[in-house]
Design brief:
The structure is a homodimer of 349-residue chains. Chain A is α/β, with parallel strands linked by helices and 349 residues long. The first copy, chain A, has eleven helices and twelve strands. In chain A, the strands form two sheets. Chain A has a ten-stranded mixed β-sheet, sandwiched between helices. Strand 7 (155-163) of chain A pairs antiparallel with strand 7 (155-163) of chain B. The complex binds 3-isopropylmalic acid (2 copies). One 3-isopropylmalic acid (IPM) sits between chains B (91, 95-96, 247, 281) and A (192-193, 223).
Amino acid sequence: MSRVVKLAVIPGDGIGPEVVTEAEKVLDAVTAGSDVTFEKTRFSLGAARYLETGDTLTDEDLDAIGAHDAILLGAVGGLPGDPRLKDANIERGLLLKLRFELDHYVNLRPSRLYPGAPGPLADPGEIDFVVVREGTEGPYVGNGGAIRKGTPHEVANETSVNTAFGVERVVRYAFALAEKRRKKLTLVHKTNVLVHAGAIWKRIVDEVALEYPYVAVDYLHVDAATIFLVTHPSRFDVIVTDNLFGDILTDLAGAVTGGIGLAASGNINPDGAFPSMFEPVHGSAPDIAGQQKADPTAAILSVALLLDHLGLGAEGARVQRAVEEDIAARTGARTTEQTGAAIIARLQA
Amino acid sequence: MSRVVKLAVIPGDGIGPEVVTEAEKVLDAVTAGSDVTFEKTRFSLGAARYLETGDTLTDEDLDAIGAHDAILLGAVGGLPGDPRLKDANIERGLLLKLRFELDHYVNLRPSRLYPGAPGPLADPGEIDFVVVREGTEGPYVGNGGAIRKGTPHEVANETSVNTAFGVERVVRYAFALAEKRRKKLTLVHKTNVLVHAGAIWKRIVDEVALEYPYVAVDYLHVDAATIFLVTHPSRFDVIVTDNLFGDILTDLAGAVTGGIGLAASGNINPDGAFPSMFEPVHGSAPDIAGQQKADPTAAILSVALLLDHLGLGAEGARVQRAVEEDIAARTGARTTEQTGAAIIARLQA
Ligand SMILES: CC(C)[C@H](C(=O)O)[C@@H](O)C(=O)O
Ligand SMILES: CC(C)[C@H](C(=O)O)[C@@H](O)C(=O)O
């Protein structure tokens, strides 16, 4: 019985196309000869498209992307400070719009320190945790505004919106994940200061915890969590947190586990109502674009997450293993393509 | 000409009293025989006081504290999860109330990696930067609320309030500081996502920058800033940022520079309308309270900041130097008192 998966590919800007090229090759290699075929549609989106056409993400784009089974994204964003992009907010208008419109309420970001990966910590211990970051609300909603803008009397407000609906579904996902892992869940927030947003997170975690008696639950303020990420990262199994704290913690976690060149992520709609989107945590890095300097590993690990999500766990595990073997054997500098080829060689060995 | 400084001392909870005791001894030692006398008033505030009397910070407390020239605070906060503290929020009702009521709009947090200090980074390089954290607005204002509380339809909002008045004064302080240091200022925010709050920070930094042509200005998103704090902390000189990002970055910075046992801070009202307050960045650590296990160094370095602030720069520098010498010579475990005594011995040498 053969299966066709419709995959939307958004290479994006900067190093996006380079890393996505390698990720696609890995996807092709791991599914070659199997009964799954990926039917790919390429979408030209990002700063380059905006500069050409003035469009960030049209309704037609969104409809077309939404008709796929899954999305692979490289990175989007132009040169910082480019005056022609002054009025564009590619991040909000494209990346966050995709996450919000496609209801990617779970932003899944695994952090593992692979043997052989270079990290900044002198004595990291074992690192293997997953951040389950809320993806569709919190301080990311764009809710706010300013009065007396540009004057000495300006007041600018930015509102974090947290709903029981939105918090509960991501918290449930995190508990279910913790139950399949080492059975430990840490809520990260700042409940002592952000009393309104904090209270709803705390309440819902406490309530859902009753249904998971075998999952040990603890709580850390976000500031304390950053300390533990550098002094005792092995204490974490599953972290559940809001959109903004998740953003901060996962960049730090990426750094601690060998750099965001290795950090993969999935923007997941667990209900399956919309296609989920897989992307490296890193950005478009325009300064090194087109030079074959980017590490495609994060994009390739995102393919492993994509395969898992599609129920192709065996294929995902093969990609994962090939990457691990490659990382353990890395020496010296390689081009983007060389790294991709090395991982494919491991896959095929 | 002799000078009397009226100092309010708030030992607080947990390890607060132990570290403040050593800090006071250092203060006494460094001013002994000089023409400055510290007239101290002790205030019993914190979880212990709340449990006894039900009071967190009364108007009388606030008036009395406000009549002093400066404040030395240990740490406040009871045992996490203590059911008797369920309805108290000591952090908001006491610590943040002091910062807000006494208009501590500069939360000054220097980060230095002292020679000999143990840190988690394999190759930290030189670390010497100062975080100028806004202290009276942003997401800390407590502005927000919830509807349908406790139900599946709850919506909880938390609003960050940012004013041109509030942002400009702290940004000006940061530029003036950068000019006296290595002339580099980094704004940290998340302007690509928090568009309303981010825009006012960006605008004001850009405007004030015009008055400081010799200060190099750059910008980092908060997530990227956490990466640099562990991969390249020497890139920072002065960081200016909002209340929440400053909270997160300074705990991480503390961890990176040898632990928050060494991190000092000043809650400063530069206008002098209210007394400034000096406190270690660490909390009350009730788990190790009363055991002489706490490191008083952060409290002692806070005394150095206090002396500086009062125009007693020579005395502040002596404390600073004594601490540096002591850190360089540290071996094995010591009691809180032994560390205090060792630093005083250096002072008097
Ligand atoms: C580019 C930006 C909008 C995005 C975010 O803040 O979520 C990025 O930092 C990430 O973590 O995926
Ligand atoms: C205790 C808490 C309210 C406080 C803060 O968030 O400011 C603390 O973390 C700090 O950094 O001084």
